[in-house]
Amino acid sequence: MSRPFTVIVAGRDAPLWLAAAALARGLAPSGVQVEAVALPSALASVDAHATFPALEALHNQLRIDETMLLRATGGNLTLGRNFTDLAGAWPAFLHAYGSAGTQIGGRDFFAHWVKARAHGLGVPLDDFSLTAAAARQGRLMLPDAENAIYGRCDYGYHLPAIPYARLLRAAAIGHGATAHAAEQLTVERAGDAIVALDLGAGRRLAADLFVDAGGVLGGAHLSWRAHFPVDRVLTAAGPPFANIPVYAEDRAGPTGWTALHPGRPATFVMHAWSSAHATNEEALRAAGAAAGLPLAGVRIAAVEPGRPARPWTGNCVTLGAVFDPVHGLDLLGLQVGLVQLLADFPATAHFAAERDEYNRAAGAALDRLRDFQSAHYALARYAGPFWDAARAGTVSPDLAHAVALFRARAELAPFEEENLPPDSWRALFLGHGVEPESWPPAIDRVPPEEAKAQFRRMLGFVREQVLRQPTQEAYLAGLADG
């Protein structure tokens, strides 16, 4: 009898266990054996994951019940991120996790809104979004059959990192993954291939495929430093808000930015800056002032953004990337790699074709997420030395093309490996002042009075839906009582 195809996943904390759970769940029907090698945790009580909506779909695949998730972690929901200028020179904008409007005349709503605004419409785009409108009113927007007909309304999570990693570990083992703990590991190689992992104390694990879920197995790193000014990140925790906001907030200051992720056990605070513009002590003072909260458990770490030069090298797949901290893309990047790996998983022990396709698709997808983050810095109008340096960063040709096309005619450039919805790009571009100068001529076939009537119906529907949604406190109380 031939032995089963074996995959070893190495890493720590949520990335390790999320990858092990997804691979064990997805590959079990094929008889693939998944083993997880866990290095010591790097987490502290001040760490939390602020996630994108796509994670909910992965949780569903892993059979992680949302009520159980929120109870076990002390987590809560988030409808997006609000970006503000501490100097007050530029208006705030909300990156909401939902769509705006419905099609008119078979064409995307956004183009009609751009045209209407050029002709005097004074209603902001957010008023046509179920998610954004609810967030502005301090309410959640929970998807159901009625509002799903109107448009997409998603949410992410704010999850304390330690209990979340613990829950994912249980899920991975529940789906059949075998867990190994190691204080350290040594990688045994033969050329590009990994032969085995030495865990010490006489433990040596061999496999057909190795998956690196945290950059612990080595490999060439493609730096993104030219795109990003941040090289230091401070994490801390402040007291929780009496009424938990339904979105995160990013506050731009002259030497960096401060993010507040409201949670039940605490308000999780992150401050990002460049060591060229502020010392650690200055950054700590800036973080406290921007957050307006007493900070505890402060930790400071260096960050070097980038991705694997070749995500699949030899028989080792490195998932995700080291992202800039803005937008919180770490778990999304890992998820993108997992989905692609499951799609390209080798049918035999000879996987050169699958490896080439994975490197093409995963590399392009990670670069696209990088461009989304890069746009935040390249387009930001905030004042201060940090932002001056940010605007001088490298802009990829794809991003430059995307900005130019959006400005010219309110359209988003089509990229094959796109993992963010159009509404995220629109919120980012509009929020940073990229104003479309025209619109696709095809929408001119819709009579103005018809468009106006549709606008009125949409605004009425959004108002009606928002009024029937719960607050965060009411929703979480319902979970506790259930």
From TrEMBL:
Does the keyword Flavoprotein feature in the UniProt annotation?
no
* Top-level enzyme category: oxidoreductase
Which E.C. number(s) belong to this protein? 1.14.19.9
Q: Which organism is it from?
A: Sphingomonas leidyi
Which GO molecular function terms does the record list? monooxygenase activity
| One Pfam family, short name | Trp_halogenase
Keyword RNA-binding recorded = no
| Name under which the protein is recorded | Tryptophan halogenase
